[in-house]
Amino acid sequence: MTRETPVGLRFGDEELEGVLVARRDSARRPGVILFPTVMGVSDLELGFARQLVHLGYTGFVADLFGKQFRGAPRDVMMKELKRLRDDRSSLRDRLRAVLETVTELEAVEADRIVAIGYCFGGQCALDLARSGADIAGVASFHGLLDPPGLPPQPIKAKVLAFHGWDDPMAPPEALVALGQELTEAGADWQIHAFGHVAHGFTNPGARGAVPGVVYNELAAERSWTSLISFLEELFG
Fold it and tell me: What's the angle, vertex CA 58, arms to CA 56 and CA 63, rounded to 5?
């Protein structure tokens, strides 16, 4: 059985509220931060976190938008997405604040943390690595790939990116550019590209209502299996 506990974080004048997903005992375990899609904290990411808890990790689903946006409609969240993406320096500070909060949680081993993310959250995981954060690794699932335009930092985290080759939000040339960027930053990186796969392939609710965003069961399973191998490589 898992326990799910709201965890507040103040960023400037904003009240954020992530969710700690952990076992019911008090033992510390390697932590996995989950950065959500544009829709913010949802059952999708909470479900992934529960699976990770059963595998021996502690999950933390991060709120980047603010607790008042929980369950808000897509058009509202798209405006908030633009707000965050328009200032990547502030977004980096926001991500670092989330990381600091997670390192202080009693259920997390502070020196054994990974960040993963989906869509916008995938970009957030990459941006946390780009900041030079001293964490074990990051993994991006169908993430946005454009760099933040900030002074480059040596990347300490191992980087894993899962990408649909037909993703209209990140064409193949963006994937090549990411590989070049990670190489120049000295990162240990790997990219898994899935043919005939679009954006949002991990989300069973993505059925094409948003053009180019389509669930793909096989790509979802392949990427999840690879993530588990990545975590085992990092933490044993």
Answer: 150
Q: In the prediction, which pLDDT does 26 show?
A: 78
In CATH terms, the superfamily for domain 2-235 is Alpha/Beta hydrolase fold, catalytic domain (3.40.50.1820)
Q: What is this structure's pTM?
A: 0.97
Taking alpha carbons only, the member of 213, 232, 65, 49 closest to residue 137 is 232
pLDDT value at 1 more than 90: no
**Nearest residue to 144 via CA among 113, 175, 184, 165:** 175
How many residues are recorded in the chain? Answer: 236
Amino acid, res. 3: R
Interior/surface letters 52-74, b for 16+ CB within 10 angstroms, e for the rest: bbeeebbbbbbbbbebebeeeee
Q: Give the pLDDT of residue 113.
A: 98
